[in-house]
Write a structure and sequence with these properties.
OB fold (Dihydrolipoamide Acetyltransferase, E2P), 5-stranded parallel beta sheet, about 30% helix, 26 helices, alpha+beta, about 25% strand, Rossmann fold, globular
Amino acid sequence: MLHNKSFMKLTKRGRAVKIVREHYLRDDIYCGVLQCKLCENTSALLSAPPSTILVLDTNVVLHQIDLLENPAIEDVVILEVVADEVKNKNLSVYNRLRTLCTNPQRRFYIFSNEYHRQTYIKAMVGESPNDRNDRAIRVATQWYQNHLGENSHVMLITNDRDNRRKAIEEGLFSETVESYVKTLGQSNLLDLVVLQSSEDATTMEIDDLRPSKRKVVYAEHKPMSEITSGLHRGIYHQGKLRINRYNTIEAYVGSESIGEEIVVCGRSNMNRAFDGDVVAVEIVPQDQWNDASSLATVDDDDEEENIHLVPGSVDDAPRNQVTSGSVVSSSSRRQCGRVVGIIKRNWNSYCGSLEPMAMPSGSSGVVYALFVPKDGRLSKIRIQTRQLGNLLDKRIIVAVDSWDRSSRFPSGHYVRTIGKIGDPETESEVVMIENDINSKPFSAQVLACLPSLPWSLSSANVSDPNREDLRHVRVFSVDPPGCKDIDDALHCTLLSNGNFELGVHIADVTNFVHPGTPLDDEASQRGTSVYLVERRIDMLPKPLTEDVCSLRAEVERLAFSVIWEMTPDANIISTRFTKSVIKSCAALSYVEAQARMDDSRLVDPLTTDLRNLNTLAKIMRHRRIEKGALTLASAEVKFQIDTETHDPLDIGMYQIREANQMIEEFMLAANVSVAEKILKDFPLCSLLRRHPIPTKEMLEPLLRTTAAVGLNLDVSSSKSLADSLDRAVGDDPYFNTLIRILATRCMTQAVYFCSGDLTPSEFLHYGLASPLYTHFTSPIRRYADVIVHRLLAAALGILKLPPVFQDKTKLTSISDNLNYRHRNAQMASRASVELHTVIYFRKRPIDTEARILKIKANGFIVFVPKFGIEGPVYLTPKGEKKSCWEMDEVHQTLLNTGTGVKYHLLQTVKIHLEVVERQANRPKLELILL
């Protein structure tokens, strides 16, 4: 049956145009219920009568997704009208819903009611889209009831009073979420239910948890219409709010409209904004601007006091202002503002624990409790629970539901229990959850895509005209010790003309990971492997990463090779690309490779190849630096882990050797060569990697620091900055490394992008001083490299370019996800290091040396080179109103007016490291000046 749908659409010039589209209605859309006598659906999921079939409305899906993910909820019909509305309103929830609907174990079925002849409805005159959708949901529910007959039980689940009333009047069974969950007889499930906000619930004080001296009332958020108008008129400024990790009552909003950060001081001025929220900010009068020169003068456990603020004022400004005794130049006073509205919420599910409390008498029913997120930048969250006794010693996950202006804390609901507080596995899982790392086992569908094991080279592989047999070539790999996912190897052969044939051979992952398969979809979503201190979370299943694709020694493997002819002075004469078959003769660690090169007694062919590679790499590295490539530094920490308990046994800075730099040089060269090739053939759909030039504002902290220690850095180009960093030397042998670490922190993030989205001038990789760059050399652990392998294969005519490369929007979405996943992997790695640092020092307090990185009015931030640790050192005791310390902002010094003791940037100080737990379940490493 054909039906015409019409709607009005505005053109770019503002004209209203009527659009008419053909809408086909069908009779062969099945109900999805097993053993249905009227449908012949072999892929039916839902249980046969007398099981209850649930039909959900849109708001139930949007707000109760945590409940829906619980296995107790099953036999659910998701109408197409609901799925579409959820997709438009919240893409994250929609993706979680889609995961439920594609999991055959969960029995969630999508019914295309908008294309079924008996369930499609037209909007009535004067009917709103929302009312029309509610009516469509009721019509579909009625159809299911009639279709399945007398023995069936179809129930509409809705919290909308009007929709439920109409459903009951129309003879349908309907329940609220809470009333339905109660019928299941699992009281703990009620903790997952998001309750309707009401004046009674949101204004309720939790006096039994922690008495409040005065009631908190936040300023009302402006309506979006007023915010939009204010943004246009320049009254308000839009940006993402980021809370200071060292001072949780101070936040920053990066505003493009005024070109600099706006400081937001105090809980009242943050006005219920969470870290990561996109907010509208109003600049406060200049007499309320803060110098923002202090470390946090309060600890996390003082949050209760700091939250009692008067709306519209900067109550805790005196804590940071000159009254502390610091001397601050007027130029350091930065624009301050207050949040007037939330443009886009960044609410997620958070890991933490309940605030310790005595068990209320007769606590078998509902009690209120305060949830303390592990991330100290976040507010405590008020939840209801029926299982308090079981949760007090557990790490749990809580989601935020609302934050009323008359409530001190946001309201939320319990999602699930992770494990016992302090258990290493529990705390490691917290790291993964907080950084959205998917550590779930690979599904059966994904594993079904793997080749049969044991895998070995076939005659078809060798005879493939697109694949070159290089098994006779002396190929070897150099990796970190214990590396099992080896995705790169090299060879270096001296040619008769005195030049070198040099090859970089990369695991041919795309030979096993095909576009559009469940394996490919999973890898695309994961984006990258994640390396934690004690474990690795793979992007691809282990049979591929550690066996089939890994370029292990003495086994024949498939590769994708970049082969150059190179002169002895490292000039590239020619470049070719080929799929290949290789057989690595050795899998060396960096230490082993370095030892071979350093041992003059060794003259075997493999060692000679290593030395030749190293000689060429040094020339290439020097040439890159001459072009302006930056040599930066970061605090990479290495742990020695107990193989049985997984506890850290030792900790220290990661040592970089010549062998590391040698491998890095050839991987960089391969990536550049591949980038040039794929962009030439596919100028609009190549996946590249860029490193944007840092802005002047980003480099300002570095310039202030170096000026204070008598250094004049030239940041006009990457070349001038590189030269300046080379000249930044002092008496302290670690001085130059510290400056490079500070420079690293001023850099922008390198990002993936689609070549069709930007102009060639924007392709630049600033840090490498390369006009073009991509990632090709690690397809086992990065999905970006998988995409680039497919592009290169298509450029060589080996394979056709997959259809996704013709969809610019999809490509942009893929690159956005890769950037998100890459950043999350970095953050998870750092969080894992912090976790194991706390575990290590809990039993091993120690005195050591540190260098001062930043001067603040009441202390300084130090870096501990031996352990790669950074943290605040306080000079002013907690709660002390007056300080004897004077800060010189220009020269970045702190002077004690009583004793004459002075501290300056990059100075060496002696500190004591120990783990303290000033707030329950939040252990942290404390740095104390000796």
